[in-house]
Amino acid sequence: MNLYESLCDLVGKDKATINETILRHHSGDESHHLKVEPDVVAFPESTEDVMKIVTFANEHKIPIVPYGAGSGLEGQAIPIKKGISMSLVRMSSIVEIKPEDLTVTVQPGITRLKLNDELKKYGLFFPVDPGADASIGGMAATNASGTLAVRYGVMRDQILNMEVVLADGRVIETGSMAKKSSSGYHLNSLFIGSEGTLGIFTKITLKLHGIPENIIAARCTFPSIRSCVDSAAAILTAGIPIARIELVDARSIKQVNHFSETDFPEEHSLFIEFHGNQSGNEEDVDFVKAIVEDMGSSHFVFETDSLKRAHLWKARHDLHYAFSHSYPNLSILSTDVCVPISKLPEIVEYTRNQLDTYGLDGGVLGHVGDGNFHTALLYNPQDPDDIAKANQFNRELVSYALKVGGTCTGEHGVGIGKIQFQKEEHGTALDVMTSIKKLFDPSDILNPGKIFPNS
Amino acid sequence: MNLYESLCDLVGKDKATINETILRHHSGDESHHLKVEPDVVAFPESTEDVMKIVTFANEHKIPIVPYGAGSGLEGQAIPIKKGISMSLVRMSSIVEIKPEDLTVTVQPGITRLKLNDELKKYGLFFPVDPGADASIGGMAATNASGTLAVRYGVMRDQILNMEVVLADGRVIETGSMAKKSSSGYHLNSLFIGSEGTLGIFTKITLKLHGIPENIIAARCTFPSIRSCVDSAAAILTAGIPIARIELVDARSIKQVNHFSETDFPEEHSLFIEFHGNQSGNEEDVDFVKAIVEDMGSSHFVFETDSLKRAHLWKARHDLHYAFSHSYPNLSILSTDVCVPISKLPEIVEYTRNQLDTYGLDGGVLGHVGDGNFHTALLYNPQDPDDIAKANQFNRELVSYALKVGGTCTGEHGVGIGKIQFQKEEHGTALDVMTSIKKLFDPSDILNPGKIFPNS
């Protein structure tokens, strides 16, 4: 059987391709994981197209790997077992905006920046901000979060309902349009973060938020990375409803200045943002200023101008590119552990020291308000020693995080890179997850080889 | 086989009983559903006790119904198929408070008031507030919420991790101690709201919050129930971060005044609360005052005194008792639909009118910030016509809610009373839920007869 021709017969010539360039484009994501080309790329344009393709693939036991914007960092979109890469790019429209309900229903292919452009007209925004211009479907599939999660939560907190095509072609809705429900099992949260292994998302209803009446951004620098994180912990336990609180270490600031032509002082820094009404924000800012100055901070700088604020956050978000574009011949391994806040200072300090111990170059940065941080670790993919060191560094960091009650991935997902830690993190619960996967996808056609050891 | 003696042999004489009074005490909850006595009541004192009892019950296909505080409103704790009522009352301790992580780990039997008494010492509180002094285990099992959900979310938003004993005796952890995670499937949310049908919770780790620096309560009255709900919707869409916003109709206010010896004006009212810093709250209060006065509100009254505030909310929370204790010979059917905010004004008005159409007595009240409201419907359980009218009223209200994209239960859960609506609400997704139930509990020993039609 010729897979390409079968798909053409099934959904139409214009919705499947074996064009070399397009196959290559769907062979990888933004991670360091090895690229693998699919046999075919499919471009469904409707839920019905998705149903046809999935049903066909299930009959013939052909792998299907959903593809959104390709901005993933753990290889979720890489078709490591070949088969069909299902691009959702043609399912990128807004189905319905309901400003009075503070909800929007979208197709999975739409990216978050395009969505927020549309929402601006209504004075609304969607707050989950992973930095990259990811697709909403991909963000749901990995339970993405990012800089605003400390205030607004993660994807799982922001999704009311999804339309999902199951491996056997059945279509279900996982929630409702009500803001809360205690009716039946919560399928929403089971599918969110399932990384394409349980079903294909074809519609997603999101909660929206009013653009805050007043926003103040601030940054401050610290003599040590430890005092940086201690301050963040102090601000959180003081109960100040911070909207963003980001750690960027001196090494990363240097890279930002180089790439984004900024001139931030090249010291360990916190970038902070406040959302609320003006008087409330000003009181919170004063409180935070007092806390960080107690902790030895200097250069406490405000940013109320919205353009300058956007510039500041863009610089922070471009960090991954700041490293990757500056070192085209090196790969970046991005770690993603998340730990209880009280353990954050010690593990961040440990991480910074480990980089030096291993003689590895990289930046430490992250969403310290959630206990989640990343190491952008530079290594030479041609050098076996370098690869070994990077992997060893990552393994030791994850073991540390798990020992203190944390997780191997706060927001990037398991994909390929975190499979090795699933048994250690979840124990018997991993067997339960495996049995759920088998229940939903007995032929293992939905993104096979992801999340589960030897699936 | 004598079940009682077998349990005594298994866990010890002091941990099982067939005492008539105790059996009767475990035959019902606070709902209108018919009471059924269990064959035995078991009092496990550890996870190991629970494992032993569950494993034994699974071998011999004996129903197990977990029992917390008995404050449920849909019969979840009623052992309708007899067997074992498993009281968690002896597993009611705080395992560990971690103020620096803003988390606490508890056993399921502890009640929320006892927990909050302990947390006060640390300047912390647990915000999920269903009114009744429910057990944390029961609140997790029904995904309870209540008056503070509009600001702090529901149980599902507040639980980091649970220890759960499965039907086959395996023990799993459903999450981690990290504030967020993208590792594996989200078992937390699958078990939360599963009403004892998937496993028995033996440990629960909750997120905590700092007691707000400043709290202001307010109440205001409206000429019509419609303007009441319109105002709530306007406040929400204005993006004001309200902490509580409760509708109490004139009929309910009358009952509150009678039962709680308060003297609130007997008109349709909103009870509101603001959490934050002082200047922020004051600015929000002014904004809200302006909105509600535009909507024709009068009697806008503040309450900053914490005792008076507590008194106000206690009156609101005692509403169910205010009706039940005043009409000892009548039963109360409490409806629990939740709809998109924009549909709330029309459905609340519809509900108030339906009461008159049917000539039924009852109050309309609820968590209008979430689109969730209740009808405390009085009926005579000895009068078949009255019963028929009450059920008809409830069925029509749920159909209305489902038609506009809502749910049959916002916070009480399915239990017995909402089973009849599961197929209509979930469609094909109900088949998926049923297959998950069969996967976890093939012998159907865990709270059989709940949630699922003819299970």
UniProtKB/TrEMBL annotation, chains A, B:
Broad class of enzyme this protein falls into: oxidoreductase
Alphabetical keyword list: FAD, Flavoprotein, Oxidoreductase, Transit peptide
Pfam families associated with the record: FAD-oxidase_C, FAD_binding_4
Organism: Lederbergia citri
FAD-binding PCMH-type domain location: 34-211
Required cofactor(s): FAD
PROSITE patterns: FAD_PCMH
The keyword Oxidoreductase appears for this protein: yes
Gene3D superfamilies noted in UniProt: 3.30.465.10, 3.30.70.2740, Vanillyl-alcohol Oxidase, Chain A, domain 4
Assigned EC number: 1.1.2.4
Coiled coil, from the record: none
PANTHER family hit by this protein: D-LACTATE DEHYDROGENASE, D-LACTATE DEHYDROGENASE, MITOCHONDRIAL-RELATED
Family: Belongs to the FAD-binding oxidoreductase/transferase type 4 family.
Entry protein name: D-lactate dehydrogenase (cytochrome)
GO biological process, one term: lactate catabolic process
GO MF, one annotated term: D-lactate dehydrogenase (NAD+) activity
InterPro entries the record matches: FAD-bd_oxidored_4_C, FAD-bd_PCMH, FAD-bd_PCMH-like_sf, FAD-bd_PCMH_sub2, FAD-linked_Oxase-like_C, Oxid_FAD_bind_N, Vanillyl_alc_oxidase_C-sub2
